[in-house]
């Protein structure tokens, strides 16, 4: 079993007038996922400058943790498919990735790099 974290990227193509509402709805749902599911590491919701795309980025400790949360997201009280219909997404693209390395700046301005142990 790999010890690499797992990232889900969901890109929405929408009309610019829908962008703010979709960003708000995704931020609310992402906060709920973070509070309810073990294995949550980080998330962000990003909006394109042209107003036509929204990107949801969720990072989990494992693929299993991310998939369990997404299954609930699909069918729970905050139905993912209803969110797509409500905000009239023209296209939704799902991607998933295993993290091979990451770097972040801490509050003390230091850089921290995580390189998971490779199984290769």
From TrEMBL:
InterPro entries: ABM_dom (IPR007138), Dimeric_a/b-barrel (IPR011008). It comes from the Bacteria. Gene3D superfamilies: 3.30.70.100. Residues 6-72 form the ABM domain. Pfam families: ABM (PF03992). This is ABM domain-containing protein. It comes from Pseudomonas atacamensis.
């Amino acid at each position: 079993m790999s010890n690499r974290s797992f990232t889900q990227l969901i890109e929405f193509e929408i009309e610019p007038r829908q962008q703010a509402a979709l960003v708000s709805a995704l931020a609310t749902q992402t906060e709920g996922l973070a509070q309810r599911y073990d294995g949550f590491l980080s998330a962000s919701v990003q909006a394109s400058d042209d107003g036509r795309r929204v990107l949801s980025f969720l990072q989990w400790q494992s693929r299993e943790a991310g998939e369990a949360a997404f299954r609930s997201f699909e069918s729970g009280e905050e139905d993912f498919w209803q969110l797509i219909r409500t905000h009239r997404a023209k296209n939704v693209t799902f991607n998933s990735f295993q993290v091979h390395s990451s770097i972040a700046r801490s509050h003390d301005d230091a850089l921290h790099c995580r390189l998971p142990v490779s199984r290769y």
